[in-house]
Amino acid sequence: MKAITVHRPTLKIIWKLLVFLFFPLIIWLYSVIGDVPFASIDSGANYHKWIIFFLYLGCLAAWLYVDRALSHSSFFRS
Fold first, then answer.
1. Model confidence over 10-46: pLDDT tens digits?
2. d(Cα 34, Cα 24) in Å, to the nearest integer?
3. Domain, as residue range, for 68
4. 57 located within any domain
5. Considering the domain boundaries, does residue 60 fall inside one?
6. How far apart are CA 59 and CA 54, in angstroms?
7. How far is residue 69 CA from its own chain's centroid?
8. What is the reported pTM?
Protein backbone atom coordinates (compact mmCIF):
# COMPACT_ATOMS: atom_id res chain seq x y z
CA MET A 1 0.00 0.00 0.00
CA LYS A 2 1.46 3.34 -1.07
CA ALA A 3 1.17 6.43 1.04
CA ILE A 4 -0.31 9.58 -0.41
CA THR A 5 2.45 12.06 -1.08
CA VAL A 6 2.04 15.77 -1.59
CA HIS A 7 4.87 17.98 -2.75
CA ARG A 8 6.05 20.48 -0.20
CA PRO A 9 5.54 23.51 -2.50
CA THR A 10 1.88 22.48 -2.75
CA LEU A 11 1.62 22.36 1.03
CA LYS A 12 3.22 25.82 1.23
CA ILE A 13 0.61 27.22 -1.15
CA ILE A 14 -2.26 25.60 0.74
CA TRP A 15 -0.84 26.91 4.02
CA LYS A 16 -0.61 30.46 2.64
CA LEU A 17 -4.13 30.33 1.16
CA LEU A 18 -5.52 29.27 4.52
CA VAL A 19 -5.25 32.89 5.66
CA PHE A 20 -7.82 33.92 3.06
CA LEU A 21 -10.20 31.18 4.15
CA PHE A 22 -10.20 32.33 7.78
CA PHE A 23 -12.49 35.31 7.28
CA PRO A 24 -15.43 33.59 5.55
CA LEU A 25 -15.04 30.62 7.87
CA ILE A 26 -15.17 32.85 10.95
CA ILE A 27 -18.27 34.65 9.67
CA TRP A 28 -19.99 31.37 8.90
CA LEU A 29 -19.07 29.79 12.25
CA TYR A 30 -20.11 32.93 14.14
CA SER A 31 -23.51 32.96 12.49
CA VAL A 32 -24.03 29.22 13.03
CA ILE A 33 -22.75 28.97 16.62
CA GLY A 34 -24.11 32.32 17.76
CA ASP A 35 -27.43 31.80 15.96
CA VAL A 36 -27.05 35.23 14.39
CA PRO A 37 -28.45 35.68 10.88
CA PHE A 38 -26.03 36.96 8.27
CA ALA A 39 -28.34 39.91 7.54
CA SER A 40 -27.81 41.09 11.12
CA ILE A 41 -24.05 40.88 10.70
CA ASP A 42 -24.14 42.61 7.32
CA SER A 43 -26.41 45.51 8.23
CA GLY A 44 -24.96 48.70 9.67
CA ALA A 45 -22.41 49.13 12.44
CA ASN A 46 -22.91 46.66 15.25
CA TYR A 47 -20.86 44.75 17.78
CA HIS A 48 -20.99 41.56 15.70
CA LYS A 49 -18.53 43.06 13.22
CA TRP A 50 -16.12 43.96 16.01
CA ILE A 51 -16.29 40.46 17.45
CA ILE A 52 -15.64 38.94 14.03
CA PHE A 53 -12.79 41.39 13.43
CA PHE A 54 -11.06 40.47 16.70
CA LEU A 55 -11.62 36.76 16.08
CA TYR A 56 -9.94 37.21 12.69
CA LEU A 57 -7.01 39.03 14.29
CA GLY A 58 -6.69 36.19 16.79
CA CYS A 59 -6.66 33.63 13.99
CA LEU A 60 -4.02 35.64 12.14
CA ALA A 61 -1.87 35.83 15.26
CA ALA A 62 -2.16 32.07 15.76
CA TRP A 63 -1.40 31.50 12.07
CA LEU A 64 1.70 33.71 12.24
CA TYR A 65 2.91 31.89 15.35
CA VAL A 66 2.47 28.48 13.72
CA ASP A 67 3.95 29.74 10.45
CA ARG A 68 7.12 30.87 12.21
CA ALA A 69 7.39 27.56 14.02
CA LEU A 70 6.95 25.63 10.77
CA SER A 71 9.37 27.79 8.82
CA HIS A 72 12.08 27.09 11.40
CA SER A 73 11.43 23.37 11.30
CA SER A 74 12.50 21.18 8.43
CA PHE A 75 8.94 20.45 7.27
CA PHE A 76 8.56 23.33 4.81
CA ARG A 77 12.19 23.53 3.76
CA SER A 78 12.94 22.38 0.26
1. 777 888 888 888 899 999 999 999 888 888 888 866 7
2. 15
3. 8-72
4. yes
5. yes
6. 9
7. 17
8. 0.71
